[in-house]
Amino acid sequence: MDGATPVTTAPAVLILLGPPGAGKGTQARMLEEKFGLVQLSTGDLLRAAVAAGTPAGKQAKAVMEAGQLVSDQIVIDILRDRLAEPDCCRGVILDGFPRTTVQAQALDDLLSETGQKINAAISLAVDDAAMVTRIAGRYTCAGCGEGYHDQFKQPAQEGTCDKCGGTEMSRRADDNAETVASRLEAYHAQTAPLIAYYDATGVLQAIDAMGAIDTIAADMAAIVKRTIS
Ligand code: AP5
Q1: Is 183 labeled as catalytic in the residue annotation?
Q2: Is the CB of 74 inside a 6 Å radius of any atom of ligand 1?
């Protein structure tokens, strides 16, 4: 802080915007580690609800398998509940939320209730062909959720997670060619308009996400340092 007094003590709110496979989850986990923030992925929260068989999970399952967006009300309710948990006072990285204008407006309302503001909405730009390659090669440690890629991010020892030493890896049910096409379509039609939404409020930060993971991480960290202090 260079000796200056912080002007706000409200927990930071960062939004990661980007198409499927852009690297939101990969970068959110790195920022979480580096800055002590909490990653909130609505995709992960919904997958947990599906696995637990909750009423919301039962409604979301078929929609997610089709690569479409789950209803705004379900996602907003899940996010509101998660934001109320005590660890979120460390500040949050919203990974995959908001995804529609209705969700963005609901987030504005939620934050105004708690006196928080959006520090930055970071948009990760990737071309569609790269997204398909990234999604096709993605797998995850079943133990801790660390993400890997057949080509771009392999664990140091094949089949063993660098983070937790787990050896069970899983691939997502919606990471297949047909579903990816629908997810991209949903992104362009319903989520891409949020780039203009956040540009208009002055919090948009655009990142070229076609480079190497570590290069993008350095660009992201610079933005976070600048906007949360
Ligand atoms: P969600 O889980 O959010 O999926 P997504 O948006 O499709 O995003 P992904 O998780 O596929 O990609 P990512 O950007 O996190 O990329 P990653 O870092 O893994 O949502 C799933 C579904 O849930 C949605 O389709 C919808 O149905 C529902 N849903 C969720 N939120 C919702 C909401 N708010 N409203 C309504 N419905 C909602 O990287 C991908 C791969 O690439 C990895 O293998 C990684 O290692 C690799 N990689 C990452 N960066 C690079 C790089 N720079 N170079 C090379 N490889 C890289």
Answers
A1: yes
A2: no
